[in-house]
Amino acid sequence: MTRLTTAVRGLLTTLAALLTATVPTATAQATTEPTAPQDFVALRTIDPTILQEMRYFTPHNFVGERIDGYVQPTCILTRPAADALHRAQRKLLRQGYTLKVYDCYRPQRAVDHFVRWAQDLDDQAMKGEFYPDVDKTRLFTDGYIAEKSGHSRGSTLDVTLVRLPAKPTRPYHPGEPLVSCIAPQGERFPDNSVDMGTGFDCFDTLSHTLDPRVQGAQRANRLLLKNTLEGQGFVNLAEEWWHYTFTSEPYPDTYFDFPVSRKSLTRAH
């Protein structure tokens, strides 16, 4: 009995030592996440009227699951980019529109997630909506996926226009039937955005901002967004009508990896 008691005590002592050793390690890991520089802000603190539909926090994106690094559905930008977006919003509100952002700052770990997904040719769960006419083997060659993204520098965003008063956009339900992003607006996934000719993140040449096939109201909507944002110092990526970068970005050569969350900003502000 004494031997057993001694053995049990020894086991308990060992377990206690292991727990004591692992707790500080876990705490240390929890506190080593990188944080944002002081000139990064939550867009809502600069302009709460701009709508936010942060797609990569949800499974409604070309990967089909929440993307690494998106802890909260919040738009983070460098202050100069956020201030410029606020000026654009003021002009659009007077015309009966509001901006809506789909993505803003994107951590490098999210870009890495995209790369892993693109390399897995067997995972084509979201092809029917986001790249219906593009072979997944060509995503890198055609420039749809890359190992670095301007979003990680903090002054690039994906954005659209919504006519006021804004109608709600219904939630996406994983597993629901997919409709091509190049289908007519009334057929593809409902979005309260004005008709831009394709859905957001549509891997297709029809997404090119000035594609000559896009005419009428669709072209007018793209040009309204383009002219308004370029008037405030943004430049459009010609291959994506939704993609804009603030030309005077403060970190043109730095790619950040802090998580998308308010906590990433708290220590800097």
Describe the overall structure:
By secondary structure, this protein is of the alpha+beta class. The chain contains seven helices and seven strands. It has a five-stranded mixed β-sheet, with helices on one face. A two-stranded antiparallel sheet has the order 1-3. The protein starts with a helix and ends with a helix.
The major β-sheet equals:
5 strands, mixed
What sequence of helices (H) and strands (E) makes up the elements?
Answer: HEHEEHEHHEHEEH
Q: Give the rounded overall mean pLDDT.
A: 91
Radius of gyration, in Å, reads 23 Å
Strand content: 5-15%
Describe what is shown at a glance.
By secondary structure, this protein is α+β, with helices and mostly antiparallel strands. It contains 7 helices and 7 strands, in the order H-E-H-E-E-H-E-H-H-E-H-E-E-H.
Keywords:
two-stranded antiparallel sheet; 5-stranded mixed beta sheet; alpha+beta; 7 helices; disordered N terminus; globular; 269 residues
Q: What does the secondary structure layout of this molecule look like, with pairings?
A:
Blueprint: H1 2-30, E1 40-42, H2 43-46, E2 51-52, E3 76-78, H3 79-93, E4 97-103, H4 108-119, H5 127-130, E5 156-163, H6 216-230, E6 234-236, E7 243-246, H7 263-266
Parallel strand pairs: 2-4
Antiparallel strand pairs: 1-3, 4-5, 5-7, 6-7
